[in-house]
Amino acid sequence: MNDIGQGTGSAAGSKRKDARRNRQTLLDAAAAVFVTSGVEAPVRDIAAKADVGMGTIYRHFPTRADLVIAVYRHQVDACAEAGPALLATGPTPHAALGRWIDLFVDFLVTKHGLAAALQTDNADFETLHAYFLDRLLPVCTQLLDAAAASGEIRSDLNAYQLMRGVGNLCIGADSDPRYDARRLVELLVAGLRQPR
Amino acid sequence: MNDIGQGTGSAAGSKRKDARRNRQTLLDAAAAVFVTSGVEAPVRDIAAKADVGMGTIYRHFPTRADLVIAVYRHQVDACAEAGPALLATGPTPHAALGRWIDLFVDFLVTKHGLAAALQTDNADFETLHAYFLDRLLPVCTQLLDAAAASGEIRSDLNAYQLMRGVGNLCIGADSDPRYDARRLVELLVAGLRQPR
Amino acid sequence: MNDIGQGTGSAAGSKRKDARRNRQTLLDAAAAVFVTSGVEAPVRDIAAKADVGMGTIYRHFPTRADLVIAVYRHQVDACAEAGPALLATGPTPHAALGRWIDLFVDFLVTKHGLAAALQTDNADFETLHAYFLDRLLPVCTQLLDAAAASGEIRSDLNAYQLMRGVGNLCIGADSDPRYDARRLVELLVAGLRQPR
Amino acid sequence: MNDIGQGTGSAAGSKRKDARRNRQTLLDAAAAVFVTSGVEAPVRDIAAKADVGMGTIYRHFPTRADLVIAVYRHQVDACAEAGPALLATGPTPHAALGRWIDLFVDFLVTKHGLAAALQTDNADFETLHAYFLDRLLPVCTQLLDAAAASGEIRSDLNAYQLMRGVGNLCIGADSDPRYDARRLVELLVAGLRQPR
DNA sequence: CATGAATGAGCTTTCATTCAT
DNA sequence: GATGAATGAAAGCTCATTCAT
């Protein structure tokens, strides 16, 4: 409020633009580091990759969860948004559910350590966990309810458990060639089907 | 001379008894610490709990994996041994498989951090991973084969993947009241069933 | 803006000054500790002496060799640079060699444990060893060659061996009043003289 | 005492013999370990090699120096005893000195870490140092005096310094193929010669 | 006497987080 | 706002030495 004499609005504008650019640099760097070292990579590494001081990271993303969320927000959002569309176009609700889960798995499986971080009881990641649930749980619930309503699947598993199970199945999937998370998830989803 | 069947030699007998007691103290302490802090708990903590120097732990269990294996060996063995029995008594192979997996899940779910450790790519736990596989994979394979042979289940999932999936589903199960690993595993196993 | 010629960039200038002061504190502390406890003194001790966290040492000097080199760099460089001058001014090349070696000995003899560290096969000190050789071997070679060319000394000892011998003779010289490394080195150099 | 039926007095005899054998086993093991790991090898390793408890080592050789001395005693003694003989047979006292020193060097150079241990200020090795001096200093003095008396060498270097110098030159000689301690010692001894 | 288990100080190294500049 | 230096708690691991059996 007391920044009289700072110049015109455009000055503040460029400031903001700078900050925004910086933020994006950070996100890109973090994404890159997460791929190679996982989401628990040392803050220093990320700062180095972004060519930025560590303080800058803490300023933009006070907790690690904030950073992780920011990095994956777009993809999580895209996943969330895909739900209704799939439901509308899918042959059946259960099929839509399956395809939506595939989307989620595709996302998780390619994020080194993300699935594990989501399940960890580490306090650092509580917010991360919460974000994913906030965003995806309603969608999953909708799909699940639809599938249950159509009689295709049993209705005794809630979306939280399903998402948790799927997330769990994705843990470590990228580092073990003998394991195929997609396959396992497929079986899990198959298991949901109403026993004739 | 009258300790035939006692093991290796008699000279060190008295010493042996002490060491054995100590070893047990250690295992108990480790088990206790594992429950609260997970299998990655600092060696120091375990030593403290056992009221023992850290060196003592390293003497008995040179690597962390050795300790973890020792702590859970009996239960893993029991699980392994239960396989054939279940197969013999179960109504069907698939039912036997389900019950055997329940056993495994019951075990894992109560061991804070074990399931996660099994899936970690941390070199410390390689041996642990190997031990579980050595012990349980053959049993699982046998059950799976039998179920496949009986035509109850699809035969396109190998035991490794199944165990990995089940193990994954157990991660973090003890610290989240909203999640029921047993339930998810049940669905997974159901998903194995031959589609009509 | 007026720090032209100060080094790399101006933005970090103020920071740099601080760090530089700290670096110097570290070097002083290390030098002091080295005097009393030798160059293998615990990192903690050096940090304590400098009244600094241990991390600070690791930041400035990632390996122990880096620290040791930094502590002695000036003196090693001075020694290296003295070579050509001595050669130019000395009555004979052999005399110059002798005086140059005296310089080296004076340096080594006052550095508790340095001579020993130079000869140790401890991997930590490889770099240190290399640094000394890089810096001093060429100089020694030059002097040795000149003396050989002048016919004063035998030419069948290379500079590496000479330096190693001299270095060895300096080991422990500071802690044994009955031993006079300078004297021994003098004899060694005398032994180089061409047998009439 | 309650080993009635063990036999006659010969039992005690065998006891002693046992102890002696044990002692020898220890020395052999230590010698072997010293070769590969140096004289500072962990006590445990030596005990293991000897297939003996660590307590046994401490009983026989309370300090490390005691053990080292015992291991090398014969060779040190042999070296000491060779002195007078060489003096009697050598062409000149200086030649005898040179040959005696060669003997010493041959001994030292083949004992990984011994030369360094002799020069260390580590309190553990004080006794070792003392033993070597006790045994060899008189011999060296005798040879040196004779050579000085014959006018072959300068008389201003005492035996202690000479031995120390020679010892120093042997440090690390076995692990550096570019360094030839014998050569350097030869030069040192040459340097002793009375300048014309 | 011998054994070897136990002790625990001592060292190294890594990083999350803070904060002076 | 940005920087990155500094901090210092944590953990791991090793061995000399003691001492109960």
CATH class of the largest domain in chain A: Mainly Alpha
Order of helices and strands of chain A: HHHHHHHHH
Q: What global shape of chain A is seen?
A: elongated
The main pleated sheet of chain A reads as: none
Largest interface: A-B, 30 and 30 residues
Distance between the termini of chain A: 68 Å
How does the helix and strand content of chain A classify structurally? mainly alpha
Individual helix count of chain A: 9
Q: CATH topology of the largest domain in chain A, anyone?
A: Tetracycline Repressor, domain 2
Oligomer: homotetramer
Percent helix among the residues of chain A? over 70%
Give the radius of gyration of chain A.
20 Å
Mean pLDDT of chain A: 88
The count of β-strands of chain A is: 0
Measured by DSSP, the beta-strand proportion of chain A falls in under 5%
Architecture of the largest domain in chain A in CATH? Orthogonal Bundle
Poorly predicted tracts of residues of chain A:
1-14
Could you walk me through the main structural features you see in this protein, from its secondary elements to its overall organization?
- Chains A, B, C, D: Keywords: DNA-binding, Transcription, Transcription regulation.
- Chains A, B, C, D: It comes from Streptomyces maoxianensis.
- Chains A, B, C, D: This is TetR/AcrR family transcriptional regulator.
- Chains A, B, C, D: Pfam families: TetR_C_43, TetR_N.
- Four copies of one chain form a homotetramer.
- Helix content of chain A is 72%, strand content 0%.
- Chain A has 196 residues and is mostly helical.
- The first copy, chain A, folds into two domains: 1-62, Arc Repressor Mutant, subunit A; 64-196, Orthogonal Bundle (Tetracycline Repressor, domain 2), CATH 1.10.357.10.
- In chain A, α1 (9-37) packs across α4, α5 packs parallel to α8 (159-170) and α8 runs antiparallel to α9.
- The longest helix of chain A has 29 residues, at 9-37.
- Chain A is elongated and about 55 Å long.
- The N and C termini of chain A lie far apart (68 Å).
- In chain A, 40% of the residues are buried.
- Chains in contact: A-B, C-D.
- The interface between A and B is medium-sized, with 30 and 30 residues.
- The structure holds a DNA duplex (21 and 21 nucleotides).
